[in-house]
Amino acid sequence: MDPATLSILYLVILMIFLGIELISHVPSVLHTPLMSGANAIHGVVIIGSIIVMGEATDVFSMVLGFIAVILGTLNVVGGFVVTNRMLEMFKKRQ
Amino acid sequence: MDSILPILYLLASVSFILGLKMLGSPATARRGNLIAAFGMGLAIFGTIFLYKGHTGGHLHNLPLIFGGLVVGTVIGMVMAKRVKMTAMPQMVSFFNGMGGACAALISLIEEANRDMAMPHDPVHSLTVIAGLVIGGVSFSGSMIAFGKLAEKIKDLSFSGQQIINILVLAGIVVMSAMFIMGSISGLTMLLVLCTLALAYGVLFVMPIGGADMPVVISLLNSFTGVAAACGGFLYDNMVMLIGGILVGSAGTILTIIMCKAMNRSLFNVLFGGLMSAKAASGTSRAVVGNIREVSATDAAVLMAYAKQVVIVPGYSLAVAQAQHTCHQLELELESKGVVVKYAVHPVAGRMPGHMNVLLAEADVSYDKLVEMEEINPEFATTDVVLVVGANDVVNPAAKTDPDSPIYGMPILDVESSRQVIVMKRSMKAGYAGIENELFYRPNTSMLFGDAKKSLAALVNEVKAL
User: Helices marked H in B23-181 — which ranges?
Assistant: First the structure.
């Protein structure tokens, strides 16, 4: 295994533990906004769609890439806005 | 110059970690979400302007990229702003599906553009295939979950479905292995694999009961995270890798926590529907007895002269948008010196925390919302419990009937209180489709009608006393 792959493996395993640690002690009240927030964060997949779109040269890749960018944006924008709307409800109390 | 993008990616990754951490506490949650969103913006615009491919060139097609961003932003904004609070869960599922589809499309394009002259690279293939399969399953599964929560799709399981599910899954595994080893390749085969993955997503979610959809959405959420991480491997892109893995692991833990709240295993939630397909019908005991109806006037008298009233909110409260009226009733009762509390079951509504969000919207104070473990011992000293459209979470069958599908789920012990008033539209069974013995208990009376109208009537009656 080359050093680059190995360091990625390190990163992945440490991230798995970090993810578990971040979520483990959350009150059930916040499960829904948390799920929604996490949903928005995996919208980071949009970066991949921007890269394929930006490197596309044929029509097939351009069409699919364009759709991928739209879907990825939907995930990001929709995810963060919905989460924010849910959390607005909590804010008033403070 | 070349180190700016990695630094932006690092900032974005830190913002995701901080964001997730802050989402875990009510005081910081909103800021956490905004921080993560800001980080996402950095990563997106950094990529557009600073990314350099293997050949060292910047990205092309910028007008199309911006076009896609604008279209997606407009649609996403409109959908997210317009959706009612009650429909939030299916909205999350929908956006999750979009992310899955995005990951699957990236894999399709990658494979279509692969340089056939290059030697076969199993690691590259593995990430492409994993992104496609996981993204595809996540997409179609999320769409089915979306349809189920919107009550457009019914639960469906047919005889022999178990075998078909296993065959489809086996097909996916075999084809994926062949791709990775390089014995098959090309877009056509990839499309076949993609179709199989989409079909599996549908078959996988179809038999799972609507009440279990939150768990499924949470699981598919972590799937999409993993699919995004595959893209990270593909492009050696750290922010995709970190964001994806983080959500993959956090989502898995969240899924398990949600299962625990229902006292069930993940396996039981995911495959229980399939197992019971054969042994269905005749599972829950027939309930016999009489129900007692109560008028709004009588119910108001009972509550106004009580020492303590506990309100148990359920999904119908959300549907009727009755949270404000419910808060009014609480204020009226308090002005008569009654102590009012809300008992919130962890899975009341369609998602954990659904009720808290709704009641918070109506300005109900946070310390009046009491969680199940704390309120259960209090029911014995409570005069009146008002159940507003909750059903399965107060069904004693969860404790007494081992054949019941909800057996073992912790419930609110409302029956130990002196008087239970159940507000319901009709005698229809709850979301899990099972009879509720509680309605036939001697200390239970029913107040039929739409939750909002009934609550408004109660407010007026209490005022008039």
Answer: 29-50, 62-82, 88-112, 122-149, 161-181
- Grouping H, G, I as helix, E, B as strand and the rest as coil, residue B221 is helix
Judged by CB atoms closer than 8 Å, whether chains meet at B360 and A53 is answered as: no
User: Domain limits at B71?
Assistant: 1-82
Non-local (6+) Cβ contacts of B56 within 8 A are: none
Q: What is the DSSP letter of B341?
A: E
How far is the C-alpha of B461 from the C-alpha of B453, rounded, in Å?
12
Please tell me the total count of domains within chain B. 3
Q: How far is CA B443 from the centre of its chain?
A: 34
Looking at the structure, do residues B58 and B135 belong to the same domain, yes or no? Answer: no
A39 in a structural domain: yes
Nearest to B83 by CA among B72, B95, B71: B95
Under an 8 A CB cutoff, do B33 and A76 touch?
no
**Lookup: tokens for B244:** 């994806």
Contacts of B413 (CB under 8 A, 6+ apart): B376, B379
Cα B342–chain centre separation: 22
Task: Judge contact between B381 and B407, C-beta under 8 A.
Answer: no
Complex ipTM: 0.94
Task: State the angle between helix axes of B29-50 and B4-22 in degrees (0 to 180), rounded to the nearest 10.
Answer: 160
Note the pLDDT tens digit of each residue in A8-41.
899 999 999 999 998 888 877 788 889 999 999 9
Q: Which residues of chain B have pLDDT under 70?
A: 1, 273-289, 350-352, 428-433
User: Which chain B residues contact residue A41 at CB under 8 A?
Assistant: 16, 19-20, 36, 40, 225, 243, 246-247
Domain boundary among B82, B107, B128: B82
Instruction: Give me A51's structure tokens.
Output: 């890269």
CA distance A59 to chain B (A): 11
- Minimal CA separation from B30 to chain A, in Å: 6
